[in-house]
Amino acid sequence: MQLCVNGARTSADGAVVPLSPEAVADSVAEAVAAGATDVHVHPKTPCGRDTLSPRVLAATLEAIRARVPASVPVGVTTGAWAEPGPAARVARIRSWTALPDHASVNWHEPGAEEVAAALIERGVAVEAGIWSGTEGAALFRRSPLGPRVLRVLAEVTDPDPAAARDSAHALLARLGTAHGRPVLLHGEEGGAWPVLRLAGRLGLATRIGLEDTLRLPDGCRAASNAELVTAGTREWAAARRGHD
């Protein structure tokens, strides 16, 4: 179960969303204690904006790694919104003074191949972010870097709980063999829980956290990432048992 700590959310989403390195580290530590085995985080500037800044990234990684076991991998985003322009993203990656264990690359974004190559050159594993509703799957299938990624993040962007499962099936079909790489399937907002349960039925890895949803399966507002991880682990396991 991967924890997606905060995503592109801001203080407008409520105080429950961790933004500072210290708040992120506290939230990650609680979620790992609740069962999270991997971490995906968006480092934030002091004003709460996603960034690839080496200074901010180093502070965030240092704070997290001081609170969780070394066996828990920590990854970051390289989303285009965090650093517009492929060349600028590559330059940022080459300037990092502290390295995450992995980083996600959205394959539909311009410069994805160059960003992924820069990460691999630095010894950072790549999560290939393949979003539904984009050309990401087709681009990834043709990518020479496909066999070298750590895993594929199959990201269902359909927020409609009634349609998200169908969108997930369609995305998985477009991915095909995914170069033989492991697939982590997840949804967002209203689609987060239906897609998580589908991942359980299919025996696929998944993720949950305040990036993907602010609400628990019953619709109540989540109090923390740990609460979401607890619920996510329970829901995934129940769906898996139902499949078996």
TrEMBL record:
Pfam families: BKACE. This is 3-keto-5-aminohexanoate cleavage protein. It comes from Streptomyces lividans TK24. PANTHER family: 3-KETO-5-AMINOHEXANOATE CLEAVAGE ENZYME-RELATED, 3-KETO-5-AMINOHEXANOATE CLEAVAGE PROTEIN. The lineage of its organism: Bacteria, Bacillati, Actinomycetota, Actinomycetes, Kitasatosporales. It comes from the Bacteria.
